[in-house]
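User: Sequence in, structure out. Go.
Assistant: Echoing your sequence, followed by the structure tokens.
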Amino acid sequence: MKTVVRIYTFTDAWLIQLADGILVLIVRDGGELTPRGVTAAKKDNLQALRDAFAGTKPDDYYIAIVTIKTEEKDAARSALTKAIRTIFVAAENVFGTDNGHYRSFGDAALSKLSDEEMIRNSRLAISTAGENLAKLADEGITQAILDEAKTLADNFDKAVDSQLTAQRDRDLATEDRIVKGNNLYKAIVKICNTGKDIWYETNESKYNDYVIYNTPTGEPEPTGKGNIRGTVTNPDNEPVEGVVCKVLNTEIVVETDEFGEYEADNVPVGDQAMEFTHPDYETYKDDVVSVFENQETINDIEMVPLEVPAPPEP
């Protein structure tokens, strides 16, 4: 059987808060999102997924129930152990311990028995004591004592079942909560992917509204690194392809694409120096490019073409 695993690492409370934030964004940015498929129906679906997940009970609730049932089971076992130990003491006094009569009562090492073994062993001791009631009478064993022991065995049996049921309920509830949480997270991710695509390189603020940090805190984790991206153009505002972009004093080297765009990832935080070179342009050096942790620095530059010597006069 495949184990259900959470696909998000932050808390359930943060997932609900994240969903609430995205629902607000859908209303705010409906004009741009609707043509891209984020319709009112998808908003309603997200709301329904959010409400279904929020309606699940937290694990602490089920842990508390399991704890209560475990305490009840332990108390029932303690009471039963005391009654069965009395039977074994009486049997030892009557038969001794090194013979078949005594061993027919079962295992006297009650503390070493599992709960299931304790139930079976207790019923055996009670039944055998009933068969030898006349011999055990002088040790104070009566039918009333055996009846009480049987009641205690029944109570313990039920307490064990109740504990197992509570544990099973917790497992099922945990799996149900994980499934609902994963479904909610997947729906959020799809909407956020659309939002990021709409505002990629057009509105940095709105783009960041749709960024999800799948970290334990829901916030960017400290990395000591950031990114630099930008566009290289010429004086006519045309993109320059093939510019070699170096972050000096590091091994980071990238080139601009056909749109003149470049992106340098995992740049150490702090003020960095960059150098831009191209065979047809003057080398450009930027001495201070500020890089911040888990943030993207925009660094657009303009390069000046090299002067082409005039052809000699004939």
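User: And one key feature?
Assistant: The chain has two domains: 1-221, 225-302.
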